[in-house]
Amino acid sequence: MIRASFPKAVVFLHAFPLNKDMYRAQFCAFEREGIPYIALDYPGFGDAPNLPGEYSVERLTDYVINEVRKFRVKEVVFVGDSMGGYIMFDAWRRYREIVKGFVFVATRAEADTEEGKKARYALIERVEKGGKDFLIDVMLENQTSPATKKDESKMRKLRCIMERATKEGIIKTLKALAERRDNTDLLPTIDVPTLVIAGRDDEKVTPPEVVKKIADGIKGAKYYELEDAAHLPPFENPKKFNEIVIPFVKEVLGL
Fold first, then answer.
1. Does the pLDDT value for residue 60 go beyond 90?
2. Alpha carbon distance 196, 225 (integer Å)
3. Biggest alpha carbon distance in the chain?
4. What are residue 98's DSSP bridge partners?
5. In the chain, what are the domain boundaries?
6. Is the CATH number 3.40.50.1820 carried by domain 2-253?
7. Given CA atoms 163, 16, 209, 12 in this order, what sign does their dihedral have?
8. Cβ atoms of 162 and 140 closer than 8 Å
9. Exposure pattern of 171-196 as b/e (b: 16+ CB <10 Å)?
10. Mean pLDDT within 36-57
11. What are the backbone angles phi and psi of residue 71, rounded to the nearest 5°?
């Protein structure tokens, strides 16, 4: 899903193990507002085939930047949920000339703890032996709020999105996430307009107090907590998410 024919655009970066369709409600709203955007799938997710070799956050960032450059977009506002935020930090570290603004969603600046790494590698082992179905069940449980769980239609849509992830893509990406670097040192250097959004009900993945550390570390950043949302605010509470994000990106892009 691409709508980019302007020098400036929003770039949507999805969470693991989803794809660009988690932002479907944003696509419609942005089109109504005339906001140009690019929505990408990482290799092995959604419509994007796997790449040969191992993945790292840096390699995924290079992939994203190369895709953006194909459309001659010179400046972007990144909107990234969860692992999308990790790619955004790396983009700031190595490609900051392209960054016009940031919307960090349900993510963290810290690297995985040793315990966190062990948990990811345990997931990899289970996926290698038994496939991805159990992981999707775990993610559906851990990433959604009580309100989302009660909405059968939303849960079905979310499962369909996750099921498009390939086994190979899941395994390679889990390794990349486990080995990612710590980004807390970058926070004081970020000097572009920044929004930070947490899901109020995110108790298991990125609790609000963890997400807020990003806003606290970036001068001038604005922080919001969305009700009826856990780890996937753009999908779980799109109305409130759009109300916050659309005015921000329009101002940053000068629309």
1. yes
2. 9
3. 50
4. none
5. 2-253
6. yes
7. negative
8. yes
9. bbbbbbbbebeebeebbeebebbbbb
10. 97
11. -100, 15
- pLDDT tens digit sequence for 196-231: 999 999 999 999 999 999 999 999 999 999 999 999
**Interval 155-168 mean pLDDT:** 98
Query: Has residue 3 got a pLDDT over 70?
Result: no
Total length of the chain: 255
Q: What is the Cα–Cα distance from 45 to 229, expressed in whole angstroms?
A: 23
The residue-averaged pLDDT of 150-171 equals: 98
Task: Give residue 6's pLDDT.
Answer: 74
Strand 8-13, strand 75-81: pairing: parallel
- What CA dihedral angle connects 216, 91, 186 and 119, to 10 degrees? 80
Residue 105: both structure tokens together: 């969603």
Closest CA to 64 of 21, 34, 95, 35: 95
Tokens of 34: 């005339």
Render pLDDT for 141-153 as a digit per residue (tens, 0 to 9): 999 999 999 999 9
Report residue 167 as tokens.
């086994």
